[in-house]
Amino acid sequence: MTASDTLPPCSILLLAGGQGQRMGGRDKGLIDWRGEPLIQHLHRLTRPLTDDLIISCNRNRERYAPLADRLVEDDESSFPGPYAGIRAGIAVARHDVLLVMPCDQPLLDLALLTALRQKAFEHPGRPVMVREGEQWQPLLCCIPTVHAAVFEQHWQQGQRSPRRTLADLGAVALQCDEGDPRLANLNTPDVLASFAR
């Protein structure tokens, strides 16, 4: 039995609803990397961890649907950013904790996700955010779903920074080394190409 098996169940949200501006407007989750779409790498990693896999997407729903237990989308058509995806995902999550990750981090591994979940278990009621060196990574986090109302309230007040809401909720850090390769964001064509092999 692994550490991951002993943790309480969690919902998982894969963020794939962005406009992909740095990718020329392409749907990042569906961009091929090492022979398959970026989203497929994270699906393979996360599918065994949950019975509630949620994908936030705003286009190409027919391609994402087979990979998820449910899809969510922004209620605005202007690609308002990742906060909208988290807000939509946390509102429908079935478990007490929502593990969130962006679709452009395909080098994430089970050890890191298990550490996030373990830290969340050790700090009930508080979000956990990855911190790489001194840099917070607010889109790689665990959020207790009891805070769905806070995300909704902040959204209605105009908040669009996940980090600020997570900080307001007393987020604790999962500390990672600066330059941890697992945290690489493959969010431009050049970076994508540099990690192609």
Overall radius of gyration: 16 Å
Largest sheet: 7 strands, mixed
- The overall average pLDDT, rounded, is 90
Would you count the extended β strands for me?
A: 9
Q: Which features does this protein show?
A:
197 residues, alpha/beta, 7-stranded mixed beta sheet, two-stranded antiparallel ribbon, 8 helices
Can you tell me about this structure?
By secondary structure, the chain is α/β, with parallel strands linked by helices. It contains eight helices and nine strands. The strands form two sheets. The protein has a seven-stranded mixed β-sheet with strand order 5-4-1-6-8-7-9, sandwiched between helices. Strands 2-3 form a two-stranded antiparallel ribbon. Strand 7 (128-132) and strand 8 (135-144) form a beta hairpin. Helix 4 runs antiparallel to helix 6 (148-156). The longest helix has 13 residues, at 110-122. It is globular. The mean pLDDT is 90.
Strand and helix layout:
Elements: H1 3-6, E1 11-16, E2 32-33, E3 36-37, H2 38-46, E4 53-57, H3 61-64, E5 70-72, H4 82-92, E6 97-102, H5 110-122, E7 128-132, E8 135-144, H6 148-156, H7 162-168, E9 172-176, H8 189-194
Parallel strand pairs: 1-4, 1-6, 4-5, 7-9
Antiparallel strand pairs: 2-3, 6-8, 7-8
Helix pairs in contact: 4-6
Concise summary:
The protein is of the alpha/beta class and 197 residues long. It has eight helices and nine strands.
